[in-house]
Amino acid sequence: MRGHHHHHHGGHGGHGGRGPRMFDAGAMRYVVLQLIAEKPRHGYEIIKELEQRVGGGYAPSPGAIYPLMAMLYDMGHVSIAFEGNKKLHSITPEGQAFLDENRAMVDALMARLAETGGGGRDDLRAVMHELKAVVIERGRDPAASPGRVERIMAILRAAAEEIRQLP
Q: Where in the numbering of this chain does the Transcription regulator PadR N-terminal domain appear (predicted)?
C-alpha cells in the first residue's frame, strides 16, 4: 500500500461542458477559504452559501467541494473541529496569510460570485477584475519560469489587437 497516499485531485474533471462552470478548482479554493474566513462552517453550509451567492443557478457538487476542503486542511489553511459526525472548518493563521497575499484575486472572485446573478456590463467589469488579478498573481510569482512575463505580455497584446478588430 505504500506510495498511495499522494492523491492529488488536480487532473481529472473540471473542464467538461456540464452547466455553467463558474470557477476552476484553483479559483474555488480561494472562494471556499474566504467563506471559511468569514465564519467557521460545515461542508454543506459552504455548498449552500455558494448556491445562495450565485443565485441558485449553480450548485457546486459535494464531489468538487469536499476534496478541495480536504486539500485546504492538508495545506494547513483550515483546521477541523468535530461536532458529532460533522466537521466544522475554521481558518488558520496560515490560511488567513494566504488569503491576504492573494487579496486582489480573492476580491475579484468574490465580486464575480456576487455579480453572477446580474448580467451585461457588470460581467465585463468582473472579467476585467479577474484578468487583472490573474495577471498580477502570475506575473509576480517568484517561482515563475523566466519567459512567463514575456508570454503574459504577448497574450495581452494579442488580445488587445483582437478586440480592436471586432466589428
A: 32-100
